[in-house]
Amino acid sequence: MAKKDEQKKINECYKLLNGSFNIKTNVIKVSVQNTVEHEMAKFLKAFELIKDGKTIITEAIFKNGGRADILNLSDMQVFEILHSETREEALRKEEYYPSALDIFYITSEEILNEWI
Question: Under 8 Å CB-to-CB from 19, ≥6 apart: which residues?
């Protein structure tokens, strides 16, 4: 993808975020409120995206209050890591994601098995 096109997508994603929170790109945030498996899987997926040259935000908070495990600004994608919640539970959160974003659900088991 041309750098100009990628930067346009990054700028569009920034417009979707709640700017009152500390937004740092390519920093992997962890939460002790999640399981260690969830956080390890989030780390590995985020690491892979950063290694591939993508610009990401973990725990991205949108203007409407929705929160994504990983927002890939370069490709306008959300990655939700499923560990203790079901796909059906995660699908209910879609209404809180901006419609301009593509949403992907990945189980922690899938990610961890790729790396182990």
Answer: none
